[in-house]
Amino acid sequence: MELADRLLLLLDVIEMGSFVGAAEHRRVNKSVVSKQMNKLEAELGVRLLNRTTRSLSLTAVGQDVAENARHLRALLDDTRRLTEHYHSMPQGSLKIASTIDFGRRYVQQAIAAFQHRYPAINIELRLDDRMQDLVAGGFDLGFRTGVPKDSSLIAKKLARNRLLIVASPDFLQRHGEPKNVAELERLPAAVYASDSQKIDKVKYYDAQGNEAHIRLNVAYKANELELLTSAATDGNMLSVVTAQTIGNEILEGKLVPIMTHLHLADFGTFYAVYPHRDLPPKTRLFLEVLKDFIGEDTPAWEQRIPNFDTMYQS
After folding, report:
1. How far apart are CA 167 and CA 134, in angstroms?
2. Residues 6+ apart with CB under 8 A from 207
3. For the whole model, what pTM was predicted?
4. Is residue 71 domain-shared with residue 219, that is, in the same domain?
5. First-to-last C-alpha distance (Å) of the chain
6. Model confidence pLDDT, tens digit, residues 34-90
7. Rounded CA separation 218/237 (Å)
8. Domain containing 18: what range?
């Protein structure tokens, strides 16, 4: 038995509470455990265990050695999982549901990268801004804005999605840049509207922190968020959009954030939603690939809006 094996055996002795317990766990004779612990102490030149007829405890140096042994065990476990992954590439299929714009911009990118890495997995992607029943639809994974009302689903937070107000330079030249909410409300605006929802009011917080609303002057309605950004770029109206729908329009000077002193309420947070707490490896791997595209702390879409961390906040 090598040093690493004896260190792992030491952990068994500690966690099982006795040589007998460790022997039963390892399915060996108690004398084998005792002999190996004596060899470990001799090899290291220190006493690791205080032994009495009724109790067993670690010495001070034994506690430090045991902590290192735990790190060793974790490293060995990670190494085994890594090699198992390479020996058994994930196979099968993934059925994914997503909101339309997020699915087009980010889920599709992740799918392309994922299937390049794991070609044995087939993927079906359904895009719909309406809430879909993941269980009834046989979906492995869904992406939504906001925590699902169905308490049987598991929701994992992915990234925030804040609001901003944008207009084109041409629009601002013709109408002038609004200085207050009243002026903003008089300007023509593009808004999201579907069969079940119309977003023509935007919540914000006034100087005293009280909740208030901007009532947009609706000139154009569309049921896809991406079209609101396009409408603002065309120069005929302003739009209140989510940061996630912004591409390079601000970086290229096609759109300008306005009324940035307002403290806008958050639009929502993107969540990954799935039916079971224990994710299958293929689903977990897909989420890891997606995270590479959307970022961890600062979402990728906010990085395309210069100084966004100073806008629309108290």
Report:
1. 37
2. none
3. 0.64
4. no
5. 63
6. 999 899 899 999 999 988 777 788 999 999 999 999 999 999 888 887 776 655 577
7. 9
8. 3-87
